[in-house]
Amino acid sequence: MVASRLPPLPPIRDLIRVYGLSASQKFSQNFILDKNVTGLHDTSSFFVLIQVELFSNQEPSMLFCSRFELDTIVRYAKISPMDDLVVEVGPGPGLLTRSILDAGARRVIAVEKDSRFMPALQQLSEAADHRLGIIQGDMLKLEHSQIMESALALPALASSSASSENILEKLALQGDASQHSLDPNNATIRLVGNLPFGVASPLLIQWLKMMALREGIFRTQNKVSMTLMFQREVAEAIAAPPKHPERGRLSVMAQSICDVKLVYKVSGTTFVPRPRVNAAVVHFEKRAEPLVPGSLDKLEDVVRFYFNKRRKTMGHNTNRMVKAVPELQDVIAEWQAMHFWDAGLRAQDVTTEQYCALARMLDEGRFNIPLT
Asked: Which fold has domain 297-364?
């Protein structure tokens, strides 16, 4: 870790009071306020999870624990001074952001929907020599060009803080620091976030589709990894292999284009009182060769169709597909001859490669399939 001159984190009670965390219930938010989880192993601090559920009439719950011995999100995100850009989604009061900056990130763009956190994030940006850029907006609706424009507006390298000097020393080992300017079409980008549980799945699907089409921050030669926190059940589903009971649509779509690994769990047994949900962090690295070239739309249709009736066998569901779209009979017969799967299997038993092969065949024939 590089040295840091960032201001100390205010007491938890002050954060709650200043930002009115208990006042808003319209966002699905989880704020991690312990550097044991986000970055530094300071066992004297506490972990606070403030959960505000969508459309809930209940007050948010505050959950405390101490002495975490877990590896950190920043470590699993592999953030270093060599990265061209780190994009953080949902920074909240900014502790994960602090850990990212402490790890030596030269450019960080934080996208936060909640206006209550703008003053704290702006203060953090100033303390970090403006290595941090802030966008107030909804990541689901945000044009990624705005992220790149904000990143290009940041100083290529800060120069006045101790942390900046250490960054320059590390860059010197790799060559002239002037070579480390940001190329929007050929950059190493880390996308990280403690995602609001209510929008985590739609965000992931959007990013996977953009990655497949090389759009937004995933464009051309950009090398983008994602390290994201989800509700535990969702994280387990995303990483689930064939035959796993939690395997579903997200599993197949994510694994078709990325190497996926559940790297870090936050257990509910650690908290007093215990929360209703646990969380986990998943790391995504893009495959050298995606299993489906181009758009993921057809694959999404295929897995939605089969997993909508996941208790039925693959044979039953395939016959149902042919009955709904009779012109599929020949292509399905060809598929069964080339990539036969046991008709007695269920949706969670089939491999990602098999689903992708069927999606490619249907896409080549421009066949539409029923979605239910």
From this structure: Helicase, Ruva Protein; domain 3 (1.10.8)
